């Protein structure tokens, strides 16, 4: 395994780590990061159980008055060392070499960590801000954060074995988001739970997809934010509840969870077209585009001798089963001419 691949895997594990890290190591990393930036150690290092609790601490709701923090030193502690290391790599590798380094190390992690970081930001704003004025203040406060384990993408691409990034990396390995100020640094614990689907999206049908020990939690189904109480209803869904759900996005989640084939069978739906390729079904939904499916039967028998039925989601404007099956192969209806249906 190459060094770059090894680093990518290492930092991917950091980005998805849950549970308490080593606080002593994290605090040592904070002090080292301050020293690398030419700053004295912070007078106090405080811990919060989640980014939400950290924001409340920093606003003075459950911690020191904001005036006791001193000015933010994020630029010196995080941004300047990042820029220095990037410039060093560009000089050493050139633009093409730097791009290749990024593709093999940080790029595979970027989208995964961005999704989670964006959801945390949205969750903190929804929980801590009661009006537009507060939202603006909290957004500015979140800009002061170093994202710890969720900075894994660029840490994977850079050299973190020594200055200028060794302190930042040490914190990221043991903690979540943190806020560096002149006098005080506030660190957060990593989440206690993280559940994702095969695409890396937050995903869980029976509880929070991302949870912290203080109760701050994010709920999602295949990446889409959903209310906690909505998930509680999924286990007892009926076709009537699906039809009457006014929120189109939540209705799609309900259909995916319930199963399109089951919904068709139990809602009394009628096929709209049938030919040698399969059967076309249409589910009309108020305030949303139609859900159109083609029911096809695999011509190759299963080991037990049965032929498995598949349901293919096709575009809403599909008018025939053949057109729908052709679309799944990237063809139009006239050019679709399989020698054998599988």
Rounded to an integer in angstroms, the radius of gyration calculated over CA atoms is 26 Å
First-last Cα distance: 38 Å
Which structural class do you get from the secondary structure elements? Answer: alpha+beta
Q: The biggest beta sheet, please?
A: 4 strands, antiparallel
Number of domains: 2
**Alpha plus pi helix count:** 13
Quaternary: single chain
Which features does this protein show?
342 residues, alpha+beta, 2 domains, 4-stranded antiparallel β-sheet, 3-stranded mixed β-sheet, 13 helices, 12 strands
Verbal overview:
With 342 residues, the chain is an alpha+beta fold. It has 2 domains: 3-190, no CATH class; 239-328, no CATH class. The chain is 45% helix and 14% strand. It is built from 13 helices and 12 strands. It has helices at residues 3-15, 23-36, 51-58, 74-104, 107-128, 132-143, 152-157, 166-174, 228-234, 239-244, 248-258, 260-266, 321-328; strands spanning 44-48, 178-180, 184-188, 193-194, 210-211, 217-218, 220-221, 224-225, 271-275, 278-283, 291-297, 309-314. The strands form 4 sheets. A 4-stranded antiparallel β-sheet has the order 9-10-11-12, with helices on both faces. A 3-stranded mixed β-sheet has the order 1-3-2. The chain has a 3-stranded antiparallel β-sheet with strand order 4-5-6, with helices on one face. Strand 5 (210-211) and strand 6 form a beta hairpin. Helix 2 (23-36) runs antiparallel to helix 8, helix 3 (51-58) packs across helix 5 and helix 5 runs antiparallel to helix 6. The radius of gyration is 26 Å and the shape is elongated. The model has no long low-confidence stretch (mean pLDDT 91).
